[in-house]
């Protein structure tokens, strides 16, 4: 375990903000909220270079790094390494364990299904692929949809049954959590824990990132106390100012920084005289066009091969399905 100097700054690296959330990534947001619950000052940074990386989110401070793909995730690393532990005294409470399992399995499964399979995919494209060229983002999106279907055990034959199971279990989970919460501020002993962090993140992503036609959102809205709980904590911990160095998170990051020219600019700037291109610039432009054309052809061929593979690939038999009954 790396030793961490308490005076060193912590930095949380996540995916970009969208939908009025500090990060719209369902995996990153619980870590952000957990740190806010712990009132641990930190800087917030964004990384959109590798949309399929399982390292993000991660927390770093000096030589210390806690990554998403290590030791059960960032929150578990922070607890084991003695950085911050909000779950002290809860790990042996059966109801706390069951609530955490409920959110991390049934509700996480339902949100993943809605984002990648049960919707048009616009939300995940903004969260993960907004900085990529459209053809590359499209290919990565289709690959991830395929991966999610495999993870959820969805085939052409059982898609309707699996969808019914997913939403049925989400409804059960919402009822159980709503009953447990009542009108309290937190789920257990009126103090936050990692269970509140993952529940709050789930509710906020469901309310703000999913479309109005979302079936999962409609099931959540049936439980007003869960919605009030999320909005109250969002105002208190997510939107409230703190000593953390946190960039603003508007609904649309592309419009977050207005472009203003110098004060001496006029409404009709004078056109610059055209400069004749050198031979090197002409050669570079020709090579650039050739490169883009070859990349486009490669992507089209890749998609064609993927379609052929989908047609020829045998479907999972019933023994490969996951039995949730």
Shape: globular
SS-derived structural category: mainly alpha
Radius of gyration (CA) equals 23 Å
Low-confidence spans: 241-275, 311-325
Distance between the termini: 41 Å
Strand order of the largest sheet: 2-1-3-4
The SSE order reads EHEEEHHHHHHHHH
Overall number of strands: 4
Helix content: 40-55%
Q: Return the average pLDDT rounded to an integer.
A: 81
| Main sheet record | 4 strands, mixed
Strand content: 5-15%
Number of helices: 10
In short:
This protein is mostly helical. Helices cover 49% and strands 6% of the residues. Strands 2-1-3-4 form a 4-stranded mixed beta sheet, with helices on one face.
Outline the fold blueprint.
Elements: E1 10-14, H1 28-37, E2 42-46, E3 58-61, E4 64-67, H2 74-80, H3 94-116, H4 122-128, H5 134-151, H6 159-181, H7 194-209, H8 215-221, H9 224-238, H10 279-312
Parallel strand pairs: 1-2
Antiparallel strand pairs: 1-3, 3-4
Helix pairs in contact: 1-7, 3-6, 3-7, 6-8, 7-9
């Amino acid at each position: 375990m790396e030793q961490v100097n308490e005076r060193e700054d912590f930095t949380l690296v996540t995916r970009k903000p969208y939908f009025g959330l500090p990060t719209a990534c369902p995996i990153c947001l619980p870590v952000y909220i957990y740190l806010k619950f712990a009132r641990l000052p930190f800087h917030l940074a964004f990384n959109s270079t590798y949309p399929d990386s399982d390292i993000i989110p991660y927390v770093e401070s000096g030589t210390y790094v806690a990554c998403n793909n290590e030791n059960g995730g960032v929150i578990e690393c922070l607890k084991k390494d003695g950085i911050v532990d909000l779950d002290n005294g809860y790990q042996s409470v059966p109801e706390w364990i069951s609530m955490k399992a409920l959110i991390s399995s049934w509700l996480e499964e339902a949100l993943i299904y809605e984002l990648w399979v049960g919707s048009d995919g616009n939300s995940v494209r903004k969260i993960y692929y907004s900085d990529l060229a459209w053809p590359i983002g499209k290919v990565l999106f289709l690959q991830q949809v395929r991966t999610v279907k495999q993870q959820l055990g969805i085939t052409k034959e059982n898609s309707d049954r699996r969808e019914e199971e997913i939403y049925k279990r989400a409804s059960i989970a919402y009822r159980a959590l709503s009953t447990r919460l009542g009108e309290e501020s937190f789920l257990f002993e009126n103090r936050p824990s990692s269970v509140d962090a993952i529940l709050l993140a789930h509710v906020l992503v469901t309310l703000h990132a999913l479309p109005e036609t979302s079936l999962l959102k409609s099931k959540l809205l049936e439980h007003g106390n869960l919605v009030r709980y999320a909005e109250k904590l969002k105002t208190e911990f997510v939107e409230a100012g703190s000593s953390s160095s946190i960039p603003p998170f508007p609904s649309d990051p592309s419009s977050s920084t207005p472009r203003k020219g110098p004060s001496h600019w006029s409404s009709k700037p004078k056109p610059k005289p055209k400069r004749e291109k050198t031979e090197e610039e002409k050669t570079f432009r020709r090579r650039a066009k050739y490169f883009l054309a070859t990349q486009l052809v490669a992507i089209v061929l890749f998609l064609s091969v993927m379609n052929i593979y989908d047609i020829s690939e045998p479907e999972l038999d019933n023994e490969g399905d996951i039995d949730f009954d």
